[in-house]
Design brief:
Layout: H1 4-30, E1 33-43, H2 46-56, E2 60-68, H3 70-76, E3 82-90, E4 93-102, E5 120-126, H4 129-138, E6 142-143, E7 149-150, E8 162-167, E9 173-178, E10 195-205, H5 208-218, E11 222-230, H6 232-238, E12 244-251, E13 257-265, E14 284-290, E15 306-307, E16 313-314, E17 324-329, E18 335-340
Parallel strand pairs: 1-4, 5-9, 10-13, 14-18
Antiparallel strand pairs: 1-14, 2-3, 3-4, 5-10, 6-8, 7-8, 8-9, 11-12, 12-13, 15-17, 16-17, 17-18
């Protein structure tokens, strides 16, 4: 009879071999995310939301449709869903606002914190931080940071970047971000307009390594940068005393990135509600364009996400921008819509 320790090591090796084989199948073409198409959020009142994003932040409306039917019930996981969907662009990037005309969901909890794992935001790049902050003050936006923060020079990856968190009329978190010369993509060094586009969406995660199993290993997104941020500027930016974050940036070949924010301290962020639904205002969904969304089934055995849609759904016209999709939730409950155009 083998000693228990040898058996434990043998089982561990077998598990690693099985995991490597499963992920290897994915990397061999089973599922490959080629672009981040849009970042979506559910809103309570579409006219109010569109007015805010177009008038205050200078987004442009490109489509406005009302949809319903069995396909939309399946893809959202909401029975009886009737949706108004508006797509807005800023520069080369897009957001998608969805109002559930029926059934209505819950508003954002009043006590939601930036280190709770429901947290998600979009980072809007500005050409002039002082001018952008003055504009937001002109429209009386709700502060989430105490004010714009310039990250310290000791931080090799983030030093010199200025940022400010605020909230939209539905109390979704947003960020404006300014890159100094020599940092960030060259496209963000333009000065022809104040609001330039969206660099990334950020999500709070409980365990970066677990999230990377899905986004990097499962979806084949590339790690584009890593940093560990802390000190008083980070605390005042996030509105979290003692904040120390592990930040991991991921990118596909096209579109904005996805940033994983793991709070190393404090560790008291709350998990996403187990009953969070797509018609709740706290729901976000990042649309990832994949070579074949149905191949998400190849990753089911890894147990690194949960299904909202039972399978890939073909969306009838006038579906905005995508023709088939499946909605899943990542290990922390963030909505991911895998789609083909």
């Amino acid at each position: 009879m083998r000693p228990p320790r040898i058996l434990a090591v043998a089982f561990a090796l077998m598990a690693l071999i099985w995991l490597a084989a499963a992920l290897g199948a994915a990397s061999g073409g089973a599922l490959n995310v080629t672009a981040v198409d849009s970042i979506g959020m559910t809103v309570e009142n579409m006219d109010r939301a569109v007015d805010f994003y177009t008038r205050v932040l200078t987004f442009e409306k490109v489509s406005d449709v009302e949809v319903s039917g069995r396909a939309y019930e399946l893809v959202t996981g909401v029975f009886g869903a009737r949706l108004r969907i508006v797509r807005l662009t800023l520069g080369d990037e897009s957001i998608e606002l969805t109002e559930y005309l029926a059934p209505k969901g819950r508003v954002v909890p009043a006590d939601m914190r930036p280190n709770d794992r429901t947290f998600q935001h979009v980072a809007i790049i500005v050409s002039d931080m002082d001018a952008a902050y003055r504009r937001l003050r002109q429209f009386n936006v709700e502060h989430a940071s105490t004010g714009p923060q310039r990250l310290p020079d000791w931080n090799a990856n983030a030093g010199g970047i200025s940022a400010f968190y605020f909230r939209d009329p539905d109390r979704h978190f947003l960020e404006i971000l300014h890159f100094p010369a020599g940092k960030g993509p060259a496209k963000w060094q333009r000065a022809d307009r104040l609001f330039l586009g969206i660099d990334h969406t950020a999500i709070v995660v409980g365990d970066t390594d677990q999230s990377l199993r899905l986004y990097r290993d499962g979806f084949q997104m590339k790690v584009a940068g890593e940093s560990e941020n802390y000190d008083t500027e980070q605390e005042h930016l996030n509105g979290v005393f003692g904040a120390r974050l592990r930040i991991t940036a991921l990118r596909a070949a096209d579109g904005p990135g996805i940033e994983l924010l793991e709070y190393l301290a404090p560790r008291d962020g709350r998990p996403a509600p187990g009953d969070l639904r797509a018609n709740d205002i706290a729901h976000w969904q990042t649309t990832l364009v994949a070579n074949a969304p149905a191949r998400i089934n190849d990753l089911l055995r890894l147990r690194i996400f949960s299904l909202v849609s039972p399978n890939v759904v073909t969306l009838p016209a006038p579906s905005p921008a995508i023709r088939e999709a499946i909605l899943v939730r990542d290990p922390d409950g963030h909505g991911i819509r895998l789609a083909s155009r």
